[in-house]
Design brief:
The chain is of the alpha+beta class. The chain has 15 helices and eight strands. The chain starts with 13 loop residues before the first helix and ends with a strand. About 25% of the residues are buried.
């Protein structure tokens, strides 16, 4: 893309800033070229839950110390979120229902007052540059602090990570500008299966200025038309636009296995041995990711498959379809009691009650297995493996 297509202002938000800092080319692909960034199942569930909490929060705007939301109200709000056209799968819907049903009673105001829901803020930077900020909810806590809230349904993060996140830094800056007479804070509220964990970060000038500096630096870089790729094969393999990224493809080509026979390892100096070991590790990682990408494409053609084989001129692929089961959420307290563990420790270890995690915990313990088996659900998740691709016999 030519530099002329870059706009001369910074169209910013914390999520955009993080993507730009990670890779300017990925930012350009997503927000300038408008290449779709597909939302995974966790993201789709998160959108449903966010929508439900928005509905619950709006019903409490202006109330002082409003009541906590009951399970019935949360589930009704989730129904309203679904009606907004998010088009969830049945699995997404079940996961969202399970999550909000276990959160009740849920206090969106933290005992204070809800000031607004889905609010936009704006931060003035140097040179007339503005930066947008967005809050899921703004509330005044019982201690008088005005707090911008972000609901999180993903993995909990440490306070150190959050303080370095531009969402916290710029959120503090936006709240400070909007409420100059009040103490302000941001809150990241992590929602999981049956528990709520809140990390609050109070305003400090250092965090405020760090966020402003990061946003301004990104604006300056973008206004100069820079859009360089930050290529790292370990992280690039997760990028939504990797198939369209020339620098990524060039990096893959550079780590292809050499056509000449390598020198015997025993004849190499130690520095060359270490260098060669590192290079071939990179090759292996790149090759494994490329194989996974190609398997995804093979699965798209399964409608043409005959039984467990997919054949094309000169090649054939072995296909295997399997089912994976899971466990009902009720397994957690009983499993915790059997293993003499805190239920929260079991939850953290098992994640979203994934079958593999539960099986790892009960391995070698027949009593724990008997407990878990009572909550085992029949296979419900179907997936397909590409077992092998071979050259067809002539």
């Amino acid at each position: 893309m030519s530099k002329r297509r870059w706009r001369d202002y910074w169209d910013g938000s914390p999520s955009k800033l993080k993507r730009f800092e990670r890779c300017a080319l990925a930012y350009r692909f997503r927000y300038v070229d408008r290449i779709k960034d597909p939302t995974g199942p966790e993201g789709r569930v998160g959108l449903l839950v966010h929508g439900a909490l928005e509905i619950v929060g709006r019903a409490r705007i202006g109330e002082t110390a409003p009541r906590a939301a009951s399970a019935a109200e949360l589930l009704e709000a989730l129904g309203g979120s679904i009606e907004e056209g998010r088009n969830p799968t049945s699995e997404d819907l079940q996961a969202a229902y399970d999550l909000v049903g276990m959160l009740a009673p849920f206090d969106v105001s933290a005992g204070g007052e809800v000031l607004g829901v889905e609010l936009e803020g704006e931060i003035e930077l140097e040179g007339g540059v503005t930066f947008g900020m967005y809050f899921d909810l703004v509330r005044r806590r019982e201690d008088g602090v005005v707090e911008g809230v972000d609901w999180k349904t993903g993995q909990q993060r440490t306070r150190t990570d959050l303080e370095m996140d531009p969402q916290a830094q710029l959120g503090l800056a936006a709240l400070r500008d909007a409420y100059p007479e009040d103490d302000v804070a941001v809150a990241f509220v992590f929602l999981a299966d049956g528990w709520v964990k809140t990390t609050q970060i109070e305003w400090r000038e250092g965090l405020d200025q760090m966020g402003r500096g990061r946003a301004l630096a990104a604006h300056w870089s973008w206004s100069r038309g820079t859009g360089d790729a930050s290529v790292d094969l370990d992280s690039c393999r997760y990028c939504f636009a990797r198939d369209k990224c020339g620098p990524y493809r060039d990096a893959l080509e550079r780590v292809e296995t050499p056509s000449v026979e390598p020198v015997e390892a025993k004849d190499l100096p130690i520095a060359a041995i270490l260098e060669e070991r590192h290079r071939f590790s990179t090759i292996a990682k790149a090759a494994d990711q490329r194989r996974k990408d190609l398997d995804v494409e093979i699965k798209r053609h399964l409608g043409r498959a005959d039984g467990d084989k997919l054949e094309a001129e000169g090649f054939s692929a072995k296909i295997r379809e399997r089912k994976a089961g899971g466990y009902d959420i009720g397994v957690l307290p009983e499993l915790a009691a059997e293993l003499a563990l805190d239920p929260y420790d079991v939850l953290r270890e098992c994640g979203s009650v994934k079958a593999a995690k539960v099986k790892a915990m009960i391995k070698g313990n027949p009593d724990a297995k008997a407990v878990a088996d009572k909550y085992k659900k029949p296979g419900s998740t179907r997936y397909v493996e590409v077992r092998a691709v071979k050259k067809a016999k002539q």
